[in-house]
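A quick aside before the break. I want you to see a complete sequence-to-structure record at least once, exactly as it would be stored in a machine-readable document. Don't worry about memorizing anything.
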Amino acid sequence: MNNDKNIHGILLQLPLPKHLDSNDFLSKINPMKDVDGFHPENSGLLFQGKPRFIPCTPLGCVKILEYYKINIKSKYIVVIGRSNIVGKPITSLLSQPFEIGNATVTLCHSHTTNLSDYTKLADIIIAAVGKPNLIKKDMVKDGCIILDIGINRINDHSDKGYHIVGDVDFSSLVEKASYITPVPGGVGPMTISMLMHNTILAAELSIK
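That is the input. The structure line, written in tokens, reads:
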């Protein structure tokens, strides 16, 4: 697939089985076909401020902010979750001098003490930690903007046997936040769209 000119994009469906090293496999993908943006070369370009392929979920978040004309310059953003898929790249993206950028960004994680001390000050919260309904109403200020990236399956007695919730207690925050993305149906569809965006970009780059 790396050498096949008819294939423009390759993604590795994560997580892999525990006995396989995802970083090892990701590094073997041709960086010019790495439409997820996880290859070390593409990660390095992003952190240098010269991105080629931006990981799909962070790029989807940027497009949401862009679409609703939300100016993040000099705003205080708290990112919760430090994964290579979302937390780290979006922290880099939003703090750099891009058109959607120049924010002051704090990256919080599972070892952050007194999380609410940070979230209460945030103009924008990006939750991507994988803990259902972690962010409560008393943890944010009025008018905060919230992008909820969490996908958590909660067992119930419905026909499916479960329902999906985010990392944010949506029902308690929908009236307090000025903008908030729902789960499901918020950032998720944008992630898929950005995968198509990156695949088209990879095809264009292969011609050049």
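Two observations worth writing down. The first helix runs from residue 22 to 27. The chain has seven helices and seven strands. We'll return to this after the break.
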